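Provenance and format

Records in this collection were gathered into a single text stream. Each protein contributes a sequence line and a C-alpha cell line. The two records reproduced below are adjacent in the stream.
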Amino acid sequence: MRKGFTLIELLIVVIVIAILATFAIPQYMKAVERAKVSKGAHHIGLIAQAMKMYRADTDEYPDASTGDFGDTFVDYVELNEIDNDSDWDYTVTGDANGETFTITADRTAGPYAGQVLEINEMGEWDNSDHLLFRIPGE
C-alpha cells in the first residue's frame, strides 16, 4: 500500500480550487463595491439626520454657504467615521436662509471614481437607483 498523493491527484485538486476561485473572487469584489456605495449612502443619511436635528433645535438649517459644519454637528452626529472616509467626499449646499439643503457624496477612489449620491432636505435621492448601482459584468 502506498502513502501520499500522486502528482495527478494534486494537480486535479489545484485545478478544482482554481475553478472555484474564478467564481468566488469576482463575487467578492462586487460585494466590496456594493458595501462602499452603501457606506456612502449611510453617511449621507447621518449628515441629513444631523441637519434635521439641528433644525428641530433652531428652526432653521445651518447656513451651508460657509461649508464648515464641524462645530455645528458635533452635538448631533459623530463625524470621525465620516471625516476619515477615503472613498467619498461629502459636501453640503443650501440657501443662506436655512430653508433647504442638498448633501452630495462624490466617489473619489477606485474604479468607480466620479459616482455621485445626492439627497435633499425632503429625503429625496437625486439618483434614485443609488443602491442598485450596476457593476460592469454584472
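Adjacent record:
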Amino acid sequence: MRPGTYLSIALASTAALPWCLETAHAADRLQGAWVTDAAPCDDVFTKRNGRVAFKPNAEDWSAFIVDGKHIRGARVTCDLISAKHKGDVTSFLLGCKSRIMFGTISVSARFENDDKFVRFDPEFPEVQTAYNRCAR
C-alpha cells in the first residue's frame, strides 16, 4: 500500500463518524412501536415471544415498529439509511419495499418528547401527523 493510503482511510473513517453517530442516535430515538393519535395501542399491537408484533387487523391503522435500523409497517418494510438534524427537525432517508414496489423516501419529523413526534413535509408544514410510542 502506498504511504498515504492508511492516512486517507483514517481520515475518511473520521469524516464519516459524525454521520454514523447522528444516524445511530436517530435510530435509538425511534425504537419501539408507534401509532397515530387516533389509534389505540391495544387494538394495533400484541406481544409474541416477548416482542411487539402487529395484531391481524393492524393494517387498518397507521402504525409501525422500529427495531434497530429496521422499520416495519403492516404492509411495508423500510431500513434507515441516514438521518440529518437541522434545528429541531430530523430528516430520515429510508429504503422501503412492499410486495410490489421499492424505493427511497425522505421523512421529516419534529420530536415533541421521547414518546411523541410529528411527521410533516417541509414543503407543506401545515400537513402533519402525530405519532405516539406504545412500547419500546
